[in-house]
Amino acid sequence: KAVLNSWQQVQHIVRAGLHHQVFQIGDQFVATFNGQPVVWDVIGIDHDKPTDPRFTHSLTIQSRDCLLTAQFDAPEPDNPDSDRQQFGNNRYLHSAIRQWLNSAETTFTWQSQHQYDVAPTGAPYDGAGFLKLLDPDLVAVLGAVDKQVARITTDGGGQDLFSDKVFLLSEVEVYGPTEGETGGEAPYPYYESMAPSPTKNALDGRIKYLGASARSWWLRSPNTAGAINARLVNTPGNVLSERACYSIGVAPAVVIV
Length: 257
What we know:
Layout: H1 7-15, H2 19-22, E1 28-33, E2 36-45, E3 59-63, E4 68-71, H3 82-87, H4 96-101, H5 130-133, H6 136-139, E5 145-150, E6 159-164, E7 166-167, H7 189-192, E8 209-210, E9 213-214, E10 217-222, E11 229-233, E12 239-243, E13 247-250, E14 253-256
């Protein structure tokens, strides 16, 4: 294995197209988050497409465990959908968690995404944005990538397309089943190696911790049966779902481009 002294070195390897030779799925890095060392797993090599057409290669890493817990999205009392009034909105494109993950602000400033949107309250939304808390040397080598997420019938069906530096994984990406429109999505090799076929059933490799305890962690995919539940991986490693207003573990992915 090569001895790497900086994230900039990793980026040079990726941009030169040598990352297939140097890194393997499951390799681990350490980068600080909020001043604490965090282990990051390599989950994909050239899996994600950089939004910037100057770049063709990518190395996707995900936090080994949950970094914290957060609400996916706040309840929306004025939303004509009575479920969203009480339990929040499961549309990732408009979610509070997506905004916070891609914020580099010293004090996160929420911005309304639609006419019924409501600001989240409490941690981590009352502090710095995710990118402000992440190791600045790692932040410096991250690039936005093109992603997709299923859109429920209430929101018009089909897919939302977006480009972000930081994102939650989808149901398909953790080798769960297809739900709604998932064109362009594919399981990360890291998760695909855990089972013979896509499954919602418990997989040990999907279990993540927060401190000493296993913790459920958010996915970006909606439960397409309704307007309020987002998918998650629960403590035994099953793919289930929960109401968007609940506080669940966050284990995001970022991409070195």
